[in-house]
């Protein structure tokens, strides 16, 4: 029997672990750009999924940001069909005009497309090829932004797919290094595409990849990459525990489904829990998560612990919250709403 190359074996173990437990005959889709990480993942899923009684397909998103992008997407789709993946979809998206910088706009367009394809084919999960190196880069970027525990927790191994909450978004390669995915491609005879955007210094992640992370490795050793990724995993577990406590406290304070919050139930909470309760409540009220910041949560917190008769706190989405006696509630009077703008 031919010996399986170690990087290929490692990826198969990681993907098998991720897919185990999905319903028999469920469809999983691989998001594949044609780069080494996602291409190696797609080849691995094509091998592992049928052996677990699952169906495997592929989606390649054409961002239309470079000349020839359509041809590359078609080439990825052709390879996927030859590899036995089905369905195979090419989704062209428009990035211009979306909110945020170019990286954020491309990401939003990509996940919107993935959600649409997943719904169209009733997929159980979408798999993406983020690696341990990507996780380390994410932690460094979060540190540079001054992010809290959720930002430093990096990317989760599995979570609901944005835009299609009943579909799982899986990242089975978060414990696999980028070097291993490249070696897996070589071992499997796969021709990966190198995206020039990954080396473009106009993008913050590209600068971290080319300069910041290599400088840390040079100063502290190669283990720093794994240690950063491991830190993200530890913080993700802590964040999940704190969020669980906050959800319980939110219900006990009466704020589930956007109901009024009882101040006496909040004032004695640890600040770390109370801020999460207020953040969850703001989301329940309809404040968009992308616009909700610590500044807004602090304004709500002041109504609890620094109450001296001040007016309403204002949240994104035109939501005003006022304290009246022992309760925090959304302002509904026409006068107050007119003042929101």
Describe the protein in words.
- This protein is an alpha/beta fold.
- It folds into two domains: 6-228, 3-Layer(aba) Sandwich (Rossmann fold), CATH 3.40.50.620; 253-340, 2-Layer Sandwich (Uridine Diphospho-n-acetylenolpyruvylglucosamine Reductase, domain 3), CATH 3.30.465.
- It contains 13 helices and ten strands.
- A hairpin with a 2-residue loop joins β9 and β10 (327-330).
- α2 crosses α7 (178-188).
- The N and C termini lie far apart (71 Å).
Key structural traits:
Uridine Diphospho-n-acetylenolpyruvylglucosamine Reductase, domain 3; 6-stranded mixed β-sheet; 4-stranded antiparallel β-sheet; single chain; Rossmann fold; 341 residues; disordered C terminus; alpha/beta
Strand content: 5-15%
What portion of residues is helical? 40-55%
- The total tally of domains equals 2
Q: What value does the Rg take, in angstroms?
A: 23 Å
In total, how many beta strands? 10
Main pleated sheet: 6 strands, mixed
Which secondary-structure class do the elements indicate? Answer: alpha/beta
Q: Uncertain segments of ≥5 residues (pLDDT<50)?
A: 334-341
């Amino acid at each position: 029997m031919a010996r399986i190359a170690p990087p290929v074996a490692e990826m198969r173990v990681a993907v098998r672990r991720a897919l185990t437990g999905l319903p028999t005959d469920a469809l999983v889709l691989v998001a594949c750009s044609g780069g080494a990480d996602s291409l190696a993942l797609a080849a691995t899923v094509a091998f592992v999924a049928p052996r677990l009684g699952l169906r495997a397909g592929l989606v390649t998103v054409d961002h239309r940001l470079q000349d020839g992008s359509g041809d590359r997407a078609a080439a990825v789709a052709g390879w996927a069909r030859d590899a036995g993946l089905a369905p195979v979809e090419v989704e062209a998206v428009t990035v211009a005009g979306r909110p945020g910088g170019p990286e954020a706009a491309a990401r939003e367009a990509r996940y919107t497309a993935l959600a649409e394809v997943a719904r169209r084919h009733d997929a159980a999960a979408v798999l993406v090829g983020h690696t341990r190196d990507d996780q380390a880069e994410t932690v460094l970027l979060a540190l540079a932004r001054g992010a809290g525990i959720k930002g430093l927790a990096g990317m989760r191994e599995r979570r609901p797919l944005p835009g299609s909450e009943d579909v799982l978004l899986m990242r089975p390669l978060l414990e696999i290094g980028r070097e291993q995915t490249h070696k897996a491609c070589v071992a499997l005879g796969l021709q990966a595409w190198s995206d020039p955007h990954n080396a473009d210094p106009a993008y913050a992640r590209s600068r971290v990849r080319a300069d910041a992370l290599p400088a840390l490795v040079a100063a502290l050793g190669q283990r720093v990459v794994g240690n950063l990724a491991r830190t993200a995993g530890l913080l993700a577990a802590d964040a999940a525990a704190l969020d669980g406590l906050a959800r319980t406290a939110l219900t006990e304070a009466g704020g589930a489904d956007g109901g009024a919050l009882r101040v006496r139930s909040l004032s004695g909470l640890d600040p770390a829990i109370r801020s999460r309760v207020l953040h969850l409540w703001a989301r329940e009220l309809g404040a968009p998560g992308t616009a909700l910041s610590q500044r807004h949560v602090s304004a709500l917190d002041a109504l609890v612990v620094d109450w001296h008769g001040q007016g309403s706190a204002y949240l994104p989405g035109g939501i005003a919250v006022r304290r009246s006696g022992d309760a925090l509630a959304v302002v509904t009077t026409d006068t107050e709403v007119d003042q929101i703008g």
